[in-house]
Amino acid sequence: MFIPFNDQNPLKHIAFQHVTVALMVLNTAIYLFMQSEIFPTSSQHGYLAFAIIPSELTTGEIVFPTAISLPEKFTLVTYLFFHGGWLHLLSNMLFLWVFGDNIEDAMGHGRFLVFYLLCGAAAGLTHAYVSPNSNAPLIGASGAIAGVTGAYIMLYPKVKVWVFVLMKIPLRLSAVWILAAWFALQVFYVVTDVTANVAWWAHIGGFVAGAALVVVFKRPAVTLFGAAPISR
């Protein structure tokens, strides 16, 4: 539908988005490592130790025994750092790059990291609640990044964002229209179940969690819906 590539929203409280960049580097490094043959779990089955398996999370019974034994509750964090393909990784990191820096700026480095992980956990729990008997593994940072976009629409709805529409047409639109359309699309996919191999409910759960948690995690000086658009 659209791909964001730049927002006109300068940092105000921090000099640099260290956590956002660190998350991008870590996700990319893990993806490249898992594509190699350095570690025994770098095969497709290696993801199962770190992925959320809803049936394992809800019942505690192991469906896929792996070489690495990890308590299921820990997968609410570990699943965020693994991706199934380069396009999956690239799209997530692009959203994180465009929107993550300003949320980190609005919260501070440490609070932003906690916020990001909580949104990811909320997304994973939402997915597991909706599909408690599923044995399909869930991986990817989409749920946490959905939380970032949920926070962004609460703080900076008027900020202008450059996007590619239909992969090639550049447009400059307000964040509220872009992110509201993205959220509506997730709901549409849930209703129509167009592609069941995507965890649409995780996206919805992460977005809602981010929109709610930003009220608690933002700096006191940062106001909701407060940023005016920047004209250039």
Strand and helix layout:
Layout: E1 2-7, H1 18-35, H2 54-59, H3 75-78, H4 86-107, H5 109-130, H6 142-155, E2 160-165, E3 169-174, H7 175-192, H8 200-217
Antiparallel strand pairs: 1-2, 2-3
Helix pairs in contact: 1-4, 4-5, 4-6, 5-6, 5-8, 6-7, 6-8, 7-8
Find the CATH topology: Rhomboid-like fold
Overall form? globular
Which architecture per CATH? Answer: Up-down Bundle
Spatial separation of the terminal alpha carbons: 26 Å
Please, what is the average pLDDT?
89
- Encode the helix/strand succession as letters: EHHHHHHEEHH
Content of β-strand:
5-15%
Query: Which CATH class applies here?
Result: Mainly Alpha
Structural Rg:
18 Å
Q: What's the helical proportion of residues? A: 40-55%
pLDDT < 50 stretches: 228-232
Number of beta-strand segments: 3
CATH superfamily descriptor: Rhomboid-like
Strand order of the largest sheet: 1-2-3
Largest beta-sheet characterization:
3 strands, antiparallel
Helix-strand category: mainly alpha
Total helices: the number is: 8
Description:
The protein is mainly alpha-helical. The chain has one domain (2-217): Rhomboid-like (Rhomboid-like fold, Up-down Bundle), CATH 1.20.1540.10. It contains 8 helices and 3 strands; from the N terminus they run E-H-H-H-H-H-H-E-E-H-H. Strand 2 (160-165) and strand 3 (169-174) form a beta hairpin. Helix 4 packs parallel to helix 6 and helix 6 (142-155) packs across helix 8 (200-217). The chain is globular. Mean pLDDT is 89; it is low at 228-232.
